[in-house]
Specification:
This protein is mostly helical and 244 residues long. Helix content is 70%, strand content 0%. The chain has two domains: 166 residues, no CATH class; 48 residues.
């Protein structure tokens, strides 16, 4: 396999850490700062906010959870909403983890799932094709673990500095993470991915005007399905016939 080659797994892990020290950690840290500031402005305890970043590590799900706590929603409604908002992890897991070496696909991956996030997934999907499978898990952990660890101090800092910045700036910090994910994901080669993003940009506002409560779910379902259908119908090359 051509591309990146590491001497051993330690070198792959260090390379992942170096990749995390750039934009991935900065963007995730900024998002958690915005989340912490949002929590304080709504009267939540700092330890509850930081615990959610440590134990959940899913910024959209965390925002949904605390918004529903503010509105006094039932426990069942909160569990359902957070579960739906985190359904993206199913897709990320089934597309990323099979790319690990066979000997790495064992029960230890249950722990690795916790540090999986949009940032680490997008960068890994882009970089995995240039490295041997035996080094991918080490690279992923080097990339994902620092991003997870920085989420707690980011949330705590945002909580402490709340009030220093205006609410629009706070919300902008929260949305930096999905914006980074979007810009990174456009570099993934399959055209179906880019088509899905384009359809989401078009359909998202339309479905929001139709029903804002279900607009995100509907946009993903319709846009992703259309992109998959177009890819299978026109973009994906036809399989070559094998002649005896």
């Amino acid at each position: 396999m051509t591309g990146i080659r590491f001497a051993n797994r330690r070198d792959a892990f260090v390379a992942g850490v170096r990749a995390a020290l750039g934009a991935p950690m900065v963007v995730l840290f900024a998002g958690m700062v915005g989340f912490g500031a949002m929590g304080r402005s709504n009267g939540f305890d700092v330890w509850l906010m930081t615990a959610s970043s440590l134990l959940m590590f899913a910024l959209p799900g965390q925002v949904v959870l605390f918004e529903m706590l503010i509105t006094g929603s039932s426990l069942f409604a909160m569990v359902l909403a957070v579960t739906l908002s985190s359904s993206r992890f199913i897709t990320m897991t089934v597309t990323l983890f099979p790319q690990f070496h066979r000997r790495d696909r064992n029960n230890r991956l249950y722990a690795a799932v916790h540090v999986l996030a949009m940032t680490a997934w997008a960068v890994s999907m882009r970089e995995f094709q240039s490295m041997p499978a035996k080094h991918r898990l080490a690279y992923f952990l080097g990339l994902a673990v620092p991003c997870w660890l920085v989420s707690v101090p980011g949330t705590y800092l945002g909580y402490q500095v709340a009030g220093w910045v205006s609410p629009p700036v706070t919300l902008a910090l929260v949305f930096l993470n999905p914006l980074f994910f979007l810009l990174t994901f456009t570099e993934v080669k399959p055209w179906a991915n880019r088509l899905a993003i384009a359809l989401g940009c078009v359909l998202g506002p339309l479905f929001y005007l139709w029903d804002r409560d279900t607009s995100l779910l509907t946009t993903g379902l319709v846009g992703g399905t259309l992109a998959y259908w177009v890819d299978r119908r026109w973009l994906r090359p036809a399989p070559q016939e094998v002649r005896a």
